[in-house]
Amino acid sequence: MVLDPLLRSILGCPHCKGPLEEHEGPPPEVRCPRCLRAWPVEDGVPRMVPEQERPLTP
Q1: What digits encode the pLDDT tens for the residues 7-45?
Q2: Which of 33, 39, 44, 58 lies deepest, with the highest CB count within 10 Å?
Q3: Residues 24, 29: Cα–Cα separation, whole Å
Q4: C-alpha 20 chain-centroid distance
Q5: What is the pLDDT of residue 1?
Q6: Strands, E, within 1-58: which ranges?
């Protein structure tokens, strides 16, 4: 999975506004290393809505 560079440059964590990291999966997702949260990526589009968010284990 590769996010569009322009999209990657403007996306940030909806909670802390920090940078997101791409994780190829499975499942493919974007992750916030500060908040330890992740969101799925479907067809190259991050689904960053509360219903799709999942916590990451430290």
Answers
A1: 888 999 999 999 999 998 788 999 999 999 999 998 888
A2: 39
A3: 7
A4: 6
A5: 58
A6: 21-23, 29-32, 37-42, 45-46, 54-55
